[in-house]
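User: Sequence in, structure out. Go.
Assistant: Echoing your sequence, followed by the structure tokens.
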Amino acid sequence: MSWPKIVSRRTTRVSPWVEIIERGVELNSGGAPELYHAIAQRDYVAIVARTPGGKFPIVRQFRPALEKFTWELPAGTIEQGEPPEESCRRELLEETGYPARTVHALGSHAPCSARLSNTIHSFFVETGARSGSGEEGIEVKLVTPHELASLILSGDFTLQLHVGALLLAALRGHLDIAALR
């Protein structure tokens, strides 16, 4: 199929972390190009971790985009040249103080195919015992699957991408969906 076609591309750097990509897209033969915009950022990781005690560490931090604190899975951006699994190990330890004992890739997906041009790499991790305090400004809480489900349903755990990572963990057999009830 020869249409749609990308006929132009312009990138504008907004900050060291974000670029806006403008694409001219010809949707059909002879049609005038239409402009579409996307945000380019580094790829990132989302981590569904289970401690030796069977609980899941989640983190609370202030999110300026929402202008409030949110509960989320441990997560973060991948450094230049860093393999996603190493980023997973680093981010989990930095944010929660829990070292990764075993790491299972859950998949790599588009976080928003209409507006973002990066990839989210999701992992399920069995942790070791906590060996640090975690990152300053981030509160760590250990929750049961049922408590996590309650936070999701109440709207206190709001990041849809992380809800998706939990579903991936369940689909890959690392989390019992029935335990979330």
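User: And one key feature?
Assistant: The mean pLDDT is 93.
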